[in-house]
Amino acid sequence: MGTSGSKGLDGVGGLGAAALGGGSGGGMGGDEGDGAVTGSWHGGAQLYVSLKMENARIIGDLVPHVYGSEPIIGSWEPARALAMERELASMWELSFVVPPDHETLDFKFLLKPKDAETPCIIEEGPTRLLTGGMLEGDVRLANFRLNGDDELLEFRVFNKADIVSPLDLAASWRVYKENFQPSKLYKELTNSTHKDAPSF
Across all residues in the chain, what is the average pLDDT? Predict the structure, then answer.
């Protein structure tokens, strides 16, 4: 094993371990380990975790999702799974921020349309475990059986965790708000709310 995916931890201030290739879509490499983040954490440092899946053969309107043990990822209900975002033509990503000492997260990948509950295809194999921002054990392929088990669809899986300070998070949030472009639906809902609001 060990050839099916990659994982790594980027550190700052001497807190880090092995590093993956830098930047989005960069080279995926690095040391394999138990994935747990250790060391002393100061100043409210958090982990910016990235999960990626890669496959150039994804068909139809199927979108990779993540679902698992916590309410934010559906509490094992496929209908409430979190959709991954397309980063490149063949790459999908889900990123989030967690405390370095977060509880172990149990999850699996699944394929389904973004706005529909069926078809829903759950990856084969055991549940994945995320501890200290990193996947436990070797990062195996995500395998899905399509068309009545006649076709096997394989995704490469990548996992990366970066240590970020509260100041970095605040700066990122500020940039996000400055560049946020509301969708047409968001504008319509906002205008409708304002029109319907009682006047005093």
Answer: 75
Give the torsion through C-alpha atoms of 50, 56, 61, 67, to 10 deg: -30
| Beta strands 62-68 and 91-98, pairing class | unpaired
Give the predicted TM-score (pTM) of the model. Answer: 0.66
Dihedral of alpha carbons 52, 142, 80, 151, sign: positive
First to last CA, the chain: 67
* Of residues 4, 12, 13, the one with CA closest to residue 161: 12
One-letter amino acid identity for 110? L
Q: Which residues pair with 109 in a beta bridge?
A: 66
What is the mean pLDDT of the segment spanning 20-30? Answer: 34
Phi and psi, residue 27, nearest 5°: -60, 135
From residue 146, alpha-carbon distances to 5, 46, 80 in Å are 22, 38, 21
Predicted local distance difference test score (pLDDT) of residue 44: 81
Q: Which letter does DSSP use for residue 20 in this model?
A: P
Work out the percent of the chain whose per-residue pLDDT is above 90. 38
What letter represents residue 154's amino acid? E
Q: Residue 100 has which token pair?
A: 């370095």
Residue 27 is predicted with a pLDDT of: 35
| C-beta of residue 171 within 8 angstroms of C-beta of residue 20 | no
Return the closest-CA partner of residue 114 out of 77, 73, 155, 62. Answer: 62
Strand ranges, E, within 2-150: 5-10, 46-54, 62-68, 82-83, 85-88, 91-98, 105-113, 121-122, 128-131, 134-135, 142-146
